[in-house]
Design brief:
Blueprint (H helix, E strand, L loop, with lengths): L3 E5 L7 H8 L5 E4 L8 E5 L2 E5 L12 E4 L4 E2 L1 H13 L9 E4 L3 E2 L2 H14 L11 H9 L12 H21 L8 H12 L6 E2 L1 H10 L4 E8 L22 H5 L8 E7 L1 E4 L11 H11 L11 E6 H11 L3 E5 L9 E10 L2 E3 L12 E8 L16 H14 L3 E5 L7 E3 L2
Parallel strand pairs: 1-10, 1-11, 2-5, 2-10, 5-7, 6-8, 7-9, 11-14, 13-15, 14-18
Antiparallel strand pairs: 3-4, 12-13, 15-16, 15-17, 18-19
The protein binds guanosine-5'-diphosphate.
């Protein structure tokens, strides 16, 4: 297999984890290139059901090397917990199949604390953060107020560096939030308990990937969230604080020269959105509750009910363009099986005119959805494994979507299990 990026096209939770897990049968490396423990990539396989937050979704395949690139928000505390949980279900994780970039920046406990304090300060204007410290972490990374994972190999230099970082963190904690400062003892204990134990995984992953590419190994680049949450191209300020789009993958992977042959954009057969912010196609009431229940739409990290709506063609087309996707994995088609008629948001109406262009974020909440209906199939499709197994109405729905988004739908998933997938050539 050639190198491939797997990215979200919409607001996240499209089912990227299960697509990565599926495609790893044929790959050598999986690299998470951005985001942090706020991800919730659900993977179901013979070992059980897992919600991966930081670990790349290739950890279940023997022989696959998993890399946390320099673009991730490396939270050693959450990572260690996650490794323990995954290992307790009989999955092998060791320094030979998990590698952490020595250039990944460290997310400290005060980042999580500041995330929470800031959401509390914002009260009814909050962003709906998962409180995993992502926004304070990325802002500190940008202004160079954190450390690189590889500094752990230079303890004297690291200690000096940490003194000035701690001073900065405490200025923010006490000055902005009137919170209790963190002591050097507390920080040292945290380093002992959480940073030192991951030392064995930290290495120069850039040179590893460079060699892998020279040797024609195949690499999957795994993104978190989706186009509409991209810091630069998403629905700012209701974005995450990192770039979720594929253009960032070379930077965040650790090897800027990485080749990306294919970009698979993951799109769910309907829409969901977690947290605050504009969501033009949002459904409410009984209709929404039915879809939420059918799709099990509750956050993998927080358990929060997800906002739901029909497939949004306007947002999806925009998401595909931002990702420059070469093909689509269309997930959760089975969830729509209960519907007599399937609503699809084909356009937005803004100030009396109808458009299929995704609007500027500031006016999104003034838009309303234009809905068309497709015929439902009203039968169980979860056992379909070939295109021919699908009822005609389901095929028609897929083809209609493909035509509207103008991108080839290569994979269709009809259930959460590893093999519940149809590949179309
Ligand atoms: P990710 O963050 O993009 O990996 O997506 P999530 O894991 O947050 O959400 C996807 C959810 O849908 C998970 O619970 C998956 O097990 C489930 N899922 C994925 N594909 C399918 C599918 O085709 N059908 C059904 N019914 N569930 C699916």
């Amino acid at each position: 297999m050639s190198n491939c990026a797997i990215v979200g096209i919409n607001w996240g939770d499209e089912g990227k984890g299960r697509i990565v897990d599926y495609l790893t049968s044929n790959c050598d490396y999986v690299v998470r290139f951005q985001g942090g423990g706020n991800a919730g990539h659900t993977v179901i396989n013979e070992k059980g059901k897992f919600a991966l937050h930081l670990l790349p979704s290739g950890v279940f395949r023997p022989g696959v090397v998993n890399i946390l690139g320099n673009g991730v928000a490396l939270d050693p505390e959450n990572l260690l917990n996650e490794i323990d949980i995954v290992k307790s279900k009989g999955v092998y994780i060791g320094p030979d199949n998990l590698k952490i970039s020595d250039r990944a920046s460290i997310l400290f406990p005060w980042h999580r604390l500041m995330d929470e304090l800031e959401e509390n300060r914002l009260a009814d204007k909050k962003y709906g953060s998962t409180k995993q410290g992502i926004a304070p972490f990325y802002s500190d990374k940008s202004i160079k107020k954190t450390i690189l994972a590889g500094e752990v190999f230079y303890p004297d230099e690291m200690e000096k560096h940490l003194d000035s970082i701690l001073e900065w963190a405490n200025l923010k904690l006490t000055g902005i939030y009137n919170a209790v400062p963190i002591t050097k003892d507390q920080l040292n204990r945290w380093i002992e308990n959480y940073l030192n134990p991951i030392k064995g995984y930290i290495c120069n992953t850039g040179s590893l990937l460079k060699t892998a590419q020279q040797n024609n190994k195949s690499i999957i680049l795994e993104a978190q969230l989706g186009s509409l949450r991209d810091l630069d191209y998403g629905i700012y300020p209701y974005t995450t604080s990192a770039n979720t789009i594929v253009s960032y993958a070379p930077i965040g992977s650790g090897f800027p020269g990485i080749r990306i042959d294919e970009t698979v954009g993951v799109v769910k057969a309907y829409s969901t959105c977690v947290g605050e912010g504009p969501f033009v196609c949002e459904m409410t009431g009984d209709e929404a509750e039915k879809l939420r229940q059918a799709g099990g739409e509750y956050g993998a990290k927080t358990g929060r009910p997800r906002r739901v709506g029909p497939l949004d063609i306007v947002a999806t087309k925009y998401g595909i363009e931002m990702q420059n996707a070469t093909s689509i994995a269309f997930t959760k088609l089975d969830v729509l099986s209960y519907m007599e008629e399937i609503p699809v948001c084909t356009h937005y109406s803004y100030k009396g005119s109808v458009t299929d262009e995704f609007p500027f974020p500031a006016v999104l909440d003034q838009c309303s959805p234009v809905i068309e209906y497709a015929k439902g199939w009203n039968c169980d499709i979860s056992k379909a494994r070939k295109w021919e197994d699908l009822p005609q109405e389901a095929k028609d729905y897929v083809i209609m979507v493909e035509n509207k988004i103008n991108c080839h739908i290569k994979y269709i998933s009809v259930g959460p299990e590893r093999d519940s997938i149809i590949t179309r050539i």
